[in-house]
Amino acid sequence: MVKKVTIQDISQFAGTSASTVSRVLNGSAIVSDEKRKAVEQAIESLNYRPSHIARSLKTRITFTIGLLLNDISNPFYSAVVRGAEEEAIRHGYSLILCNTNESEQRERQFLELLQDKRVDGIIFSPTGQNQDYICDLALRVPLIQIDRHLDCGGMSYVLADNEGGTYQATRLLIEKGHKRIALFRWKRNITTMLQRLAGYERAMAEAGLSLDPSLIIECDGMTLQDAAEKCLQEFQPSPRFTAALALNNQIGLGILTVIRQLELRIPEDLALIVFDHLDLFDLTDPTISTIAQPAFLIGEQAMRLLLKQIEAGEQFTPEWVVLPIELMMRESV
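Above: the chain sequence. Below: its structure as tokens.
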């Protein structure tokens, strides 16, 4: 059996006291450069690995962060995870990843689980439910919202410019001569959908185009199959619109599926812009125009903000970050 390396072993190897080793490990006091270098060399030579469990019992810090997402199969959230993880690793933290699948019950269960795990903070994309519980939790646990947000006053968030994205896309379609622009959205009234709808409405109003409620089309489910079934209903016997704006990538894929099924031409029969970029949209023929969110940066910024809040404690001032989007023009418009 390999003998576990202790602080006493390090102190003997480095020729320093055990208290000096402890100060270097915890960064709790000033240590001379000479002694710090000796301790660090001893740690490396002996391959010492500190016990995070013992450390957390002393400091009440577990160096773990909860990351609670709605649909980890969505490439947008996968990129968010990568951004958050890279920033966490740079600061010695690990992630506990949870997937709510848009269930308010699972959201509540996971938030309770993460508290039981004594995570130092939580980054999450709210389902839009459990608001009272979450607002109360924010008074006790560092929380950062991403992608969507609840109105909890003192809780920070990191979002993309949802309204600005659909505003730019709608303006582009209008400039291309389209007047009947269908907006395909998810039925649930989360802030993401509301903000994107607001951008569409603002662009239509500025252009002097009246809003046709029948062109704001709601999909009951979030899966590609749900979107395709709804789109098929709206496209038959023939589309009542000349352009479509899909408010997330799953709906966009659903529209694209139906277009192929009905053998419609893009953009001759229907122009298309999708909110959220997928690499797949670069490979289709024709290629699909998208509103690209900085997903990696959202995760990175949220983790940076959460670690800042953990360090500041009660002195932390909430921050609301809205990151710019990029309208990526391709052949579908």
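The mean pLDDT is 88.
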